[in-house]
Backbone:
């Protein structure tokens, strides 16, 4: 495999289309269709479930099963209350950040299509500088330019409509990918690229590979909880994002030191099976793939936890992509890290033998 090139023009176009499409938690299916269409040439079949998780399968007849996984949903808002004056108050769908909301454009998803709106905010001239209020969940609001509640409802907007940001993919300084929803649409992209490389390099795996794009991670790992019961894997390698902690106002003593451009981040946590993690590290060292280490405490906060503690215990590990400005509309990652996560998963898969249990007692 060419160490200097993994992401092609075609795959980058897919990544851009995939990121630009809205797929809020609970409404992931259009993004899943884009992802499945790209993955289709590289897998033998697909599994989907009731809530929208999609799985591309290579060697579905094999009894020994390995999962590589990312999650497909993005944070968003719900319409919660419409005032008589036609302004909209919201609640979170996932970990949406109230502090970035003022002056942002939004898309409200209705049966009539997308309705545009803005998060309004009082002009600086009108605020009391002695006791300025910061943006809070109970004071941010959306303005559709409507004169009253009846006009809002006529547009098709009602309580329960989901709201996303329209910000789209851009490349900054030649090799930084910037967009909303890189957490964790990047995971779906990277596992799809692993499948593509296996196909193009004509690698025949001795086990079933389940390329899994889970839903509803942002509200508690729910999609992973469901699909792991369907697949019943022997091994799961999860990819998600973690924080680049080198930007201002982040305390490294608390968050650790991980940075964009320095390689994939390999986690230490109770849910991470130690022998599988060491296999990943050994692979990185052998293949000269740069990597970083991160210590989690009680849990990883990712789908790793859902897979690890399912089906009587599944050997699971986490490879993360360092990201700046998580849960904003300008999430940023380094192309080198994206390619090295793909490379590390790909190379690790080639080391796995059928029947491996990664047992501490063998």
Residues:
């Amino acid at each position: 495999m060419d160490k200097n090139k993994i992401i092609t023009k075609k795959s980058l176009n897919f990544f851009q289309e995939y990121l630009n499409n809205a797929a809020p938690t609970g409404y992931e299916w259009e993004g899943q269709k884009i992802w499945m269409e790209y993955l289709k040439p590289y897998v033998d079949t697909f599994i989907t479930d009731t809530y929208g998780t999609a799985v591309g399968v290579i060697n579905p007849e094999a009894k020994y099963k390995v999962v590589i996984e990312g999650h497909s949903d993005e944070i968003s808002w719900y319409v919660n209350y419409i005032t008589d004056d036609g302004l909209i108050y919201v609640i979170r769908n996932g970990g949406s950040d109230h502090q970035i909301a003022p002056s942002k454009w939004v898309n409200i998803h209705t049966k009539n299509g997308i309705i545009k709106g803005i998060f309004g905010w009082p002009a600086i001239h009108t605020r009391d500088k002695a006791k300025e209020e910061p943006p809070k969940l109970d004071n941010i609001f959306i303005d559709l330019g409507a004169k009253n509640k009846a006009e809002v409802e006529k547009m098709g907007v009602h309580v329960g409509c989901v709201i996303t940001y329209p910000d789209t993919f851009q490349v900054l300084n030649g090799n930084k990918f910037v967009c909303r929803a890189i957490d964790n649409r990047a995971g779906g992209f990277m596992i799809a690229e692993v499948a593509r490389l296996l196909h193009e390099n004509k690698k025949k795996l001795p086990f079933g590979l389940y390329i899994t794009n889970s839903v509803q991670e942002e509200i508690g790992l729910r999609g992973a909880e469901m699909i792991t019961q369907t697949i019943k894997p022997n091994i799961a390698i999860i990819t998600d994002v973690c924080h680049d902690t080198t930007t201002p106002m982040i305390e490294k003593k608390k968050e650790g030191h991980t940075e964009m451009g320095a390689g994939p981040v390999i986690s230490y946590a109770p849910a991470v099976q130690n022998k599988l993690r060491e296999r990943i590290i050994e692979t990185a060292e052998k293949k000269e793939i740069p990597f970083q280490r991160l210590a989690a405490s009680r849990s990883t906060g990712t789908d790793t936890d859902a897979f690890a503690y399912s089906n009587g215990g599944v050997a699971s590990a986490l490879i993360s992509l360092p990201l700046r400005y998580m849960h904003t509309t300008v999430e940023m990652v380094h192309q080198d890290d994206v390619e090295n996560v793909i490379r590390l998963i790909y190379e690790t898969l080639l080391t796995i033998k059928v029947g491996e249990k990664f047992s501490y007692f063998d």
User: Anything to note?
Assistant: The radius of gyration is 21 Å. The domain at 82-164 is CATH 2.40.30.40 (Elongation Factor Tu (Ef-tu); domain 3). The mean pLDDT is 97.
